[in-house]
Amino acid sequence: MADDVLFSPLKFRKLEVKNRIFRSNIAGRFDNYDGSGGQGRINWEASFARGGVGAIITSFTPVNMRGRILPNYPTIDCDERIPFWRKVVREVHALDCKYIIQLSHSGRQRDEGGIDNLEKIALSSTNTHDPFHGIPCRAMTREEIEDSMEDFGRAARRAQEAGADGVELHGANGYLITQFLSSAINDRTDEYGGSLENRARFVRGIVASIRKHAGQDFHLQMKINAYDHDNVITINPFAKQGNNLDDTIRICRWLEADGVDAFHISVGSLFPHPLNPPSPLGEAGFPLEFAARSYGAMLASGKDTFRNYLLFRYRLLRPIFHFIWNRLKKKYPTVEGISADYARAIKKEVKVPVLCTGGFQNAALIRDKIAHGYFDGVTIARALIANRDLVKVWASGRDLPERPCTHCNKCLVYAPSYPLGCYELARYGGDYDRMIREVYEVFDPPLSGLDER
C-alpha cells in the first residue's frame, strides 16, 4: 500500500484526505419528514467510513425547505440542525474519515417537494418545466436569488460549526445551480442570464457568500457538469445541448479564482441521465419494471409523470422509452470512467485537485487514470453500496470484489419509495431474504458510545 497511489494522501489547500477514494453523494430516505436527521443516516455514513473510504460527501443536503428533492432527507436550513450534523461528523471522524456536506437546492428538479411545497411552485432560472418529470416552476426574482445565495452561505457556516471538513456545491446534474449555468435551461434576459459570465453570476455569488460566512480557510469544492448533453430525452432535433467542455473550463477558472478548492466532475443536465449514472446499453441500465414500482409516488408531481409511468409500467410501451434513453449511450458506451476524459481536460486548466465520478470499481483502472493525470481522486456511489468493503478489497491486493456491482441502477430507481440498498438479486445467489437483511442493516444502530452533545 505504501507504493499504491490509491492509498496516498490527497492534499487540498486546507484539507488532507488519507486516500484517493471518496464516497459520492448518495443516500436514501432515512430521516425525519421535517428535515431533522435520524439514526439511520448516522449508521449509513458510518458504514462507509468503516469500509475505508478517505472522505464522505453527503447526499443532497437542502439549504432551505423550498429546495428539497424528497422528504426524509436531512436539511441544513436552520441552526437547529447543527447538533445532528455534529453527531454525524463525530461518528465519521472516529473512524478516521473526513466528512464533506453537500449544499444543494433542487430548483425545478425535485421528486416530491413535501408538504412544505404543496402550494409552492418550484423556483428556477426559468419558467419552463423540467424535461423529465415536467415539474412546474417559475423564474426566481432578484430578491429570491440574493436570498438563496445567503442561504448557501449560512448553510456553510452551520456545516463548519458542526465540525465538517468542508462543503461541496451541487452544481451538476440538473439542480438549481445547473439551471442557472446551462445555456439550454437558463433563458433569463437580466444580469443572471444570456452570456456565460451572466449565467455564472449566481454560483459565483454563492461562493462569495460562503467565503463571507465561513471564511477563506474552510474547504469548498464544486460538483459540475463537464458537458450538459441536455437534448438527450427529447425527439426534437433542434433541442439545445447546453454547456460544453469549453464553457465548463471557463467556469472552473473563474471559480478557482473566487476561492473554490477542488472540482468534482460529472456529466448531464438532469438526473437521472443516460450518461449519469453510467450503465450498460439496453434495458439493463434503466430497469423500467422496477422503476414502475416506486414511481407511483410521483404521479401528482409533474405534467409528464403519468406519461412516464405508462412507459415504465407497460411492457409494450417500454421500447419507446429505451429508444430515446439509449440514443446517447450508443455514442458513449463506456460505463466505468465515463467522465475521465472530461476530468483530464479540466485538470489541465486548473491548479486545484480534480475528482471524477462515473461507475468506478476497478482499482487497476483508477490507478492508471490517476498516474496518467486524468484526475486526483474518484468518487463512488453504487459500487460502494454493493460492497461497503470495496476499499479493503483493494487494500488486500485485489482489483475487483467477488460480487461486483452490475450497474443495474435498481438501487436508484427504488430510492424514492424504498430504503436505499442493492436490489440486484443475482448478487445474492437468488436469496431474497439475504438481500433484504442487508438493505435493512442501515437501521441497526452501532454501539458508538457517542453522546448527543
What is the element layout, followed by pairings?
Layout: E1 10-11, E2 16-17, E3 21-23, H1 39-51, E4 55-57, E5 61-62, H2 82-93, E6 98-104, E7 122-124, E8 137-139, H3 142-161, E9 166-171, H4 176-181, H5 196-199, H6 201-214, E10 219-225, H7 245-258, E11 262-266, H8 288-295, H9 305-313, H10 318-331, H11 340-347, E12 354-357, H12 363-371, E13 377-380, H13 382-386, H14 390-395, H15 410-414, H16 432-440
Parallel strand pairs: 3-4, 3-13, 4-6, 5-6, 6-9, 7-8, 9-10, 10-11, 11-12, 12-13
Antiparallel strand pairs: 1-2
Write a structural description.
The strands form three sheets. An eight-stranded parallel β-barrel has the order 3-4-6-9-10-11-12-13, surrounded by six helices. A two-stranded antiparallel sheet has the order 1-2. It has a two-stranded parallel ribbon with strand order 7-8. The chain is globular. It is of the alpha/beta class. It has one domain: Alpha-Beta Barrel (TIM Barrel), CATH 3.20.20. Helices cover 34% and strands 11% of the residues. Residues 449-453 have low confidence and may be disordered. The two termini are 37 Å apart. Strand 5, helix 2 (82-93) and strand 6 form a beta-alpha-beta unit.
